Amino acid sequence: MTDDLKSRLTPIQYAVTQEAVTERPFTGAYWDNHADGVYRCIVCHAPLFDAGQKFESGTGWPSFYDVVENGRVTTVTDRSFGMDRTEVRCAACGAHLGHLFPDGPRPTGLRYCINSAALDLTTRSSEP
Q: Which residue, 21, 73, 118, 124, has most beta carbons within 10 Å?
């Protein structure tokens, strides 16, 4: 499976989703994207976030206040770099997506801070 993923993902997509690397802020394709649609996992294409749940966080990464449907992501404690954070993973395939913070807007108060490299946007006009 690793060779298959390396052949179909870009180096940054692989590093983010399989090695939990974080892309640099303000460099990803979706941090300032305002298109309507569904953000899917770049690895398995599971729907994760709706564009209607996206908000401007000012962080340089796409930020969402909720998932498209409960159970689409899982969270684990991440103690890397001497910090206590909550890592967000795709529930379907385990790909690293980003981190979850308790400083988002209403109605959830959550900020899913997600790497663009972990996502693929299916716009509403191109959905089946």
A: 118
